[in-house]
Amino acid sequence: MEGKTSNEVFNREKAEATVKELRQSFRAGKTKTYEWRAAQLEGIARLIKEKESEITQALRSDLAKPEMESYLHEISLAKSACLFALKNLKKWMKPEKVPAAITTFPSSAQIVSEPLGVVLVISAWNYPFLLSIDPVIGAIVAGNAVVLKPSEIAPATSELFAKILPEYVDSSCIKVVEGGVPETTALLEQKWDKIFYTGNGKVGRIVMAAAAKNLTPVSLELGGKSPVLVDSDVNLKVAVKRIAVGKWGCNNGQACIAPDYIITTKSFAPQLVEALKVTLERFYGKNPLESADLSRIVNLNHFKHLTDMLDEENVSDKIVCGGQTDEKQLKIAPTLLLDVPHDSLIMKNEIFGPLLPIVTVDKLEDSFEIINSMSKPLAAYVFTKNKKLEQEFLSNVSAGGILVNDVALHLANLYLPFGGVGESGIGAYHGKFSFDAFSHKKAVLSRGFAGEAGARYPPYTPEKQWILKGLINGSIVALFLALFKRF
Amino acid sequence: MALITGKKCGDEEMGALGLETEVAEARTTFDSGKTKGFEWRKSQLEALLRLLQEKEEDMLKVLKEDLGKHRVEAYRDEVGALTKSVDNALLNLKKWMAPEKVSLPLVAVPTVAEIVPEPLGVVLVISSWNFPIGLSLEPLIGAIAAGNAAVLKPSELAPATSEFLAVEIPKYLDCEAIKVIQGGPQVAEQLLDLKWDKIFFTGSAQVGRIVMTAAAKHLTPVTLELGGKCPAIFDSLKSSRDQRMAVGRVAGAKWGSCLGQACIGIDYLLVTDEYAPTLIELLKGVIKEFFSNSEHLARIVNKHHFQRLCNLLQDESVAASVVHGGSVNAEELFIEPTILLNPPLDKEIMTEEIFGPLLPIITLKKIEDSIEFLRARPKPLVIYAFTHDEKFKQRIVDDTSSGCVMFNDTLIQYLCDTIPFGGVGQSGFGQYHGKFSFDNFSNRKPVGRRNFLIEFSFRYPPWNEKKLQLLRHIYRFDYIGFVLCFLGLKR
Q1: Where does the Aldehyde dehydrogenase domain lie (chain B) (predicted)?
Q2: Alpha carbons within 13 A on the beta-carbon side of A184
């Protein structure tokens, strides 16, 4: 277990030594067997079960996360990822037989999944337990050795990992390194076989540039402004509840797939705002700052980022609900804003908090221009019963994932790839996609000496060219001649 | 043959401004949605097929000019292979474009979900000089099939081919969406500064790093098809017929494809001390049979690489290990098939990718030692092994890592559309060919749908213990427990 003690700093030498040790373990073949992988996953499943209250406590300490959210969004998702992996491990590890082509006849082909080697997982602060353990599960299930660097902005969870993970898994192959920028930099200088990063685009660029030096492939799970298009023909009560729980019920908006802003028609906006207000009061009471069901803002830095957005000129007067803040407790109430300027901070940057701007348009078709003027988000949502609008949304909006008439759910489906596109990221994971993200798919092609196409070899003649042409075009006659004609 | 667009594309001088304007046009074209439809993609692929058929002679000619490739080799390795790929893409395009239905867990019921492939946008393809048509158009097939607009920068080291592509592609393909921009490192640098939705690079590791670093600025995903020292393990094969065939395949892979300047060509051989002399004799025989006429061999691409290869032989100990060949012709940029026996492992010929007609044979005490030998070295694009021993084959697959493993033959993995083609570690990342090309240039977007009918109130705050209990049951797929709890009959 590598941790930051009072006297030691995790520097380049330590990083080198860590990677060296993991490489040796990997070379020795430890992580490749089914037994080892299953044992680690079972260990993690036990950890989640036995340490549930410690995890919940750490999340409360780091984020004032309500127990329900900790259970719903972190613990249960981690558990299902683990159990799903255990259930499917054998199947995923099996080579996949594929048909060979007529051009290579006779031959047999398969695709073998093999681990990449020694991988680095850097996780984020908003779902500090899930976003650490989920990629680590993927790394393990694919047979890699792994270093986890949890976010230092969620220190209680980071410390918890450093303390308890070694008790449940093989720490000669799975390590936790705590720390901030210096430690992460030291880690990024090493040569990894894959780097999996969850966080923001600015650091994502740094990670990818560091990876480029060693030609290391990366997965970047980033963010963006996830839009919610709301049509007037929906069941408003249900729609608003789903939007609300997806926004404020997810770490008080500090989630990469939380709705960032709403677009609706000018005529429908007043109804939407009213419905949201009613729902917000039902969820969080008249004094939301005192509700135990709302996470707090993670730290002062981020708190200021949000209040800066609210205080901007021409924005502060657009607040139609909420707006209360408490710096001491780092709490901000669910806040609705109507028609803020398009060039305001709140519309230019990912909000990642409990502020929800509502942008109005004359007709919904105008919304695509607004959505596509921003970079591609991790998720995009549309509430409508109109099939045509739904189809237009699907064709015109590029995002990591799209959900119709609900919010955030696709995160929980282990059969859907979870990842971004463009500025929202590179690569996907969850379920088998996690296994694939940390594997190399090796093609294995096997031939015998039964048939030999003399036409392949020099000296070349027009006749050989004719046969090759036919062979490549799948002609049986050419194949016959290719195999049996002697040159 | 109708051009999709009414615009006439001629050759325009490409200054820096011209380059950016071209790319901007590709972007505008993509944003207009033109490239997304099935009809457009089909028409472009059909146009490519026509290009391959109508301009076949011209292609064979420029490949001869740039690399001295014999027309049969050029057809076999580039034109023919591309024809197969376009046919395959046309055959499967509809299927590839179709959304993929997915199953969902109970908590989300009654949601329906699918994975919808969508184009990434405007992609950059940078290709290499050794298979200048193949390595330009093969990725382009994938880009087009996936519905993207594309800019191709062919290698300036194969100038006749680059010119050919710049002139002919606009005549056949939609020149508002597919662009060819010629140039060297400077032009590449300018292109890399721009924002792309994907960059597909084939070339050396050194330039691969530059490409990825540039891509990082925009968080652009990349595929890097690099190289490495691809070994061929040569086990003793019982029958002399098999041996002869195997040696033919080795010779074909070493010298018969661009004179060894191929990323999947054999770099060096691993064989037992005992068998080496036999192998060398067999190789000499096959070289005589196949390559007596140097017309049937490509040449070295340019002076720089010619000098690089000659330099590999400069070292005394390396020169002393030559057992066949070794003669060079600077004027014709030709080096004859050369075999070396056990050159020192620390010399450049054994530490760097050779990419030429020099074939080191490294001998080992027993053939199984080849596995340790390979594990100590960077992962190559392919490991070849000639053997009948099934156990040994399994060990090679299990204990070594490479882009691909090919048993008892060489090079043909390039033609197989059902297996992914790409490297790992130093040989690169990302894969293509067949559907892998389509996926490489796509964003696989999950789309989930719900209706408003069924609503679970326990999803929402305010939270309480009962809601927590219900969720515990749901997440464990304990439906009975859930129902009981819901009805208040269970705590």
Answers
A1: 20-446
A2: 21
Report whether B55 contacts B83 (CB < 8 A). Answer: no
Region for B114 from its dihedrals, namely left if φ exceeds 0, alpha if ψ lies in -120 to 50, beta otherwise = beta
CB pairs under 8 A between A and B: 295
- Is the CB of A404 less than 8 angstroms away from the CB of B213? no
**Contact of A453 with A255, CB cutoff 8 Å:** no
pLDDT at site A442: 98
* Helix, coil or strand: residue B376: coil
The Cα B125–Cα B169 span in angstroms is 14
DSSP, residue by residue, B152-202: EE--TTSHHHHHHHHHHHHHHS-TTTEEE---SHHHHHHHHHS--SEEEEE
What is the structure's pLDDT at A461? Answer: 83
Separation between Cα atoms, residue A275 and residue B122, nearest integer Å: 41
ipTM above 0.85, yes or no: yes
pLDDT at residue B454 greater than cutoff 70: no
Give Cα B394 distance to the centre of its chain.
Answer: 25
Residue with the two structure tokens 């008892």: B408
Per-residue pLDDT, averaged over B358-381, amounts to: 97
Q: Which of A109, A416, A425 sits opposite B113 (nearest CB)?
A: A416
Which of chain A's residues have a Cβ under 8 Å away from the Cβ of B431? 441
Global confidence as pTM: 0.94
d(CA A158, CA A23): 24
C-alpha dist (Å) from residue A49 to A59, A75, A405, B481:
16, 9, 33, 19
Partner-chain contact B72 A416, CB within 8 Å:
no
Q: Of these residues, B138, B176, B225, B353, which one is catalytic?
A: B225
CB count in 10 Å sphere of residue A25:
19
Distance from CA of B123 to the nearest CA of A (A): 12
| pLDDT for residue B486 | 67
